[in-house]
């Protein structure tokens, strides 16, 4: 690997770490969306350079959230003030601006800017419609929604099954999503589910209330200030869990907690 490639890899690691530090759910979400998008893209005859742009856009599509107070991301949109609503609606544009600081992420920035545009023109920020939305953004929108619905944090108000998520995507054809992208994506997911063996998860996402003595942390456990409270590999004891419950009640911890299965 030449120095240029090493520098890009280091920057990628840094940006992903920033998302993980801010909210581990967003960091893991971006990685999963990147895997989905790069699997979907070849079915649309997209060139390799454009696939790499799409992968980067998927990894960093929520980087514009870094300017928003964490607790407000989990509040109902209707309960937010006008200023906070505006910030959330602008997060795609903010993310694109941040990515454009690196010339090799310009293609990704264009996709990030448009990934909340809707097929029927009801999205944001530019209310683009149909084929006026860049293809990469149309692919990213479907992959993003699928993973976001399927992998809710353990303490989310509602969880969805894979069938419920697929039904939602199909219902939103010609509204939120490009119908061809949805149909191709659903076909891909169903084919993968039939052919892939059921693998044991590499890590479990648990709330503080679900932790048990003897479980081992799969990731560093962070405070809401971004400080490491317990490091990866720590075997939890009853004293750890009691302390974590107290900190959770004080809203001083980042959830979910990642433990080894």
Provide structural commentary:
The chain is mainly alpha-helical and 261 residues long. The chain has two domains: 3-195, Hypothetical protein af1432 (Orthogonal Bundle), CATH 1.10.3210.10; 204-259, Molybdopterin biosynthesis moea protein, domain 2, CATH 3.90.105. The chain has ten helices and four strands; from the N terminus they run H-H-H-H-H-H-H-H-H-E-E-E-H-E. The protein has helices at 3-22, 24-40, 48-60, 82-89, 91-99, 106-113, 135-150, 162-171, 179-195, 238-249; strands at residues 204-206, 221-222, 228-230, 257-259. The strands form two sheets. The protein has a two-stranded antiparallel ribbon with strand order 1-4. Strands 2-3 form a two-stranded antiparallel ribbon. The longest helix has 20 residues, at 3-22. The mean pLDDT is 86.
């Amino acid at each position: 690997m030449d120095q240029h490639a090493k520098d890009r890899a280091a920057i990628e690691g840094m940006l992903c770490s920033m998302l993980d530090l801010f909210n581990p759910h967003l960091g893991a979400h971006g990685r999963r969306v990147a895997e989905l998008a790069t699997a979907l893209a070849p079915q649309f005859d997209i060139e390799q350079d454009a696939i790499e742009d799409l992968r980067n856009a998927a990894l960093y599509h929520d980087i514009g959230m870094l300017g928003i107070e964490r607790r407000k991301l989990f509040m109902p949109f209707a309960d937010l003030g006008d200023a906070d609503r505006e910030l959330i609606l602008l997060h795609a544009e903010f993310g694109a601006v941040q990515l454009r600081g690196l010339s090799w992420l310009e293609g990704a920035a264009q996709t990030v800017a448009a990934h909340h545009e809707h097929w029927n023109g009801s999205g944001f920020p530019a209310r683009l419609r149909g084929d006026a939305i860049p293809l990469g953004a149309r692919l990213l929108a479907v992959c993003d929604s699928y993973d976001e619905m399927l992998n809710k944090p353990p303490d989310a108000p509602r969880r969805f099954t894979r069938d419920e998520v697929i039904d939602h995507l199909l219902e939103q054809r010609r509204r939120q999503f490009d119908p061809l992208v949805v149909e191709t994506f659903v076909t891909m997911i169903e084919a993968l589910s039939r052919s892939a063996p059921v693998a044991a998860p590499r890590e479990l996402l648990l709330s503080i209330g679900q932790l048990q003595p003897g479980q081992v942390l799969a990731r560093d456990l962070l405070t809401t200030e971004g400080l490491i409270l317990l490091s990866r590999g720590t075997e939890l004891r009853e004293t750890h869990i009691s302390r974590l419950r107290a900190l959770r009640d004080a809203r001083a911890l980042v959830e979910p907690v990642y433990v080894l299965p």
